[in-house]
């Protein structure tokens, strides 16, 4: 009898531990994590074994080998004699370039259309709805094919290139624009522009605090524009005020000099901007409509201009609703840029595919561009989450 009692008393703590919710939740998580780890280990080990049996080399040593293929456009200098690693860096920068510009332009276009959707003007509402229903319901890949065919067929060859103004040429090879010739003054002006934008931001922040404290309005917009423009002009004058331009000119079968926008880059940027702006417009519309009408009515009764009401009253409150879904669209635009391979723009996926075909390092190449896209997406999410926290209401 005593032995039975002792054994039952010994199992009671174990049963109590098993029936404890906290312990079971931790146990289940450990088991799931262990199962996922074992599955991953099995897949990796099986892949390496199969590659070894087929005498396929593994590892990332191929990144130091000569690439031996050209890239049509790059942000940094590149030649076929460079390594695969540098070629992949070119692809990363090309992806970041088109994604950043696409996010910027799609945000502006989508915001303007979203504001137009809630405008009392029926024509603006009609045009906005027509735009959204047209471009949102056509797959992005088909839009890229359409715009690419338009861009490449609507313009003549380089020898018959359109010349709408001095130094500007448009052909089926791209758009060529003049740029300032190399001079220290332009570097100084660029640094001054960055400082001017920072100064404009600080002026705006000070003006809003002053408005909140005293009720006095300071024209921070015009003052900020003056600072952002005035500093670069001053730096340009101090460093000699150069006026020499690097103008494109026809040499052989194409233009040389200046700066060019390739049909592939322009098509991809246009498609991403137009397509993503449709979703951003609906997000902005819903954000604006989430603000109680009493806010705008109260602001109007105080005599504020409609533009001030939208900029100072409605949009700041709507941002709390707009930012989270806007983050998803930024991520979608960045990932949709991988469709560039369909029209020949040398983005990360396109260059990775070429690398994979030449080296046979399929697993490594796919791992690289998956990791890069994951890193870019996480950076965008981190920044937008930080900005969302700043815009959130602070509870007392």
UniProtKB/TrEMBL annotation:
It is found in: Cell inner membrane; Cell membrane. Its main location: membrane. GO terms for molecular function: transmembrane transporter activity. GO terms for cellular component: ATP-binding cassette (ABC) transporter complex. The keyword Transport applies. It comes from the Bacteria. The chain crosses the membrane at residues 26-44, 98-118, 138-155, 185-206, 218-239, 259-281, 365-387. Pfam families: BPD_transp_1 (PF00528). InterPro entries: AA_ABC_transptr_permease_3TM, ArtM/GltK/GlnP/TcyL/YhdX-like, MetI-like, MetI-like_sf. NCBIfam families: HEQRo_perm_3TM. This is ABC transporter permease.
């Amino acid at each position: 009898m005593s032995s039975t009692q002792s054994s039952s008393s010994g199992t009671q703590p174990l049963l109590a531990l098993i029936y404890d919710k906290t312990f079971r939740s931790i146990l289940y998580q450990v088991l799931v994590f262990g199962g996922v780890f074992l599955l991953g280990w099995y897949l990796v080990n099986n892949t390496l074994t199969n590659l070894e049996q087929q005498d396929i080399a593994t590892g990332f040593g191929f990144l130091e080998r000569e690439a031996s293929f050209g890239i049509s456009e790059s942000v940094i200098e590149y030649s076929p004699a460079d390594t695969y690693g540098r070629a992949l860096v070119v692809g990363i920068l090309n992806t970041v370039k088109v994604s950043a510009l696409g996010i910027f332009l799609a945000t502006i276009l989508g915001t303007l259309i979203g504001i137009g959707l809630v405008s009392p003007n029926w024509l603006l509402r009609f045009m906005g709805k027509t735009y959204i229903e047209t471009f949102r319901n056509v797959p992005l890949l088909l839009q890229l094919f359409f715009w690419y065919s338009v861009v490449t067929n609507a313009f003549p060859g380089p020898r018959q290139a359109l010349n709408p103004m001095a130094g500007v040429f448009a052909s089926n090879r791209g758009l060529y624009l003049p740029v300032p010739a190399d001079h220290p003054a332009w570097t100084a002006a660029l640094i001054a522009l960055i400082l001017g934008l920072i100064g404009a931001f600080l002026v705006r922040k000070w003006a809003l605090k002053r408005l909140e404290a005293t009720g006095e309005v300071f024209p921070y917009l015009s003052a900020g524009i003056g600072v952002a423009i005035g500093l670069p002009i001053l730096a340009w004058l101090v460093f000699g005020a150069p006026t020499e331009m690097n103008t494109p000119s026809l040499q052989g079968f194409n233009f040389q000099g200046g700066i060019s926008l390739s049909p592939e880059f322009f098509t991809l940027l246009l498609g991403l901007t137009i397509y993503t702006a449709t979703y951003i417009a609906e997000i902005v519309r819903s954000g604006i409509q989430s603000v109680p009408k009493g806010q705008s009515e109260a602001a109007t009764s105080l005599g504020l201009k409609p533009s001030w009401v939208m900029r100072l009253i409605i949009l700041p409150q709507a941002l709390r609703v707009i930012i989270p879904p806007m983050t998803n669209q930024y991520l979608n635009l960045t990932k949709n840029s991988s469709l560039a391979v369909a029209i020949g723009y040398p983005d990360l996926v396109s260059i990775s595919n070429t690398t994979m075909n030449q080296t046979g390092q399929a697993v490594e190449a796919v791992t690289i561009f998956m990791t890069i896209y994951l890193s870019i997406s996480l950076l965008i999410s981190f920044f937008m989450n930080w900005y969302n926290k700043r815009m959130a209401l602070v509870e007392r």
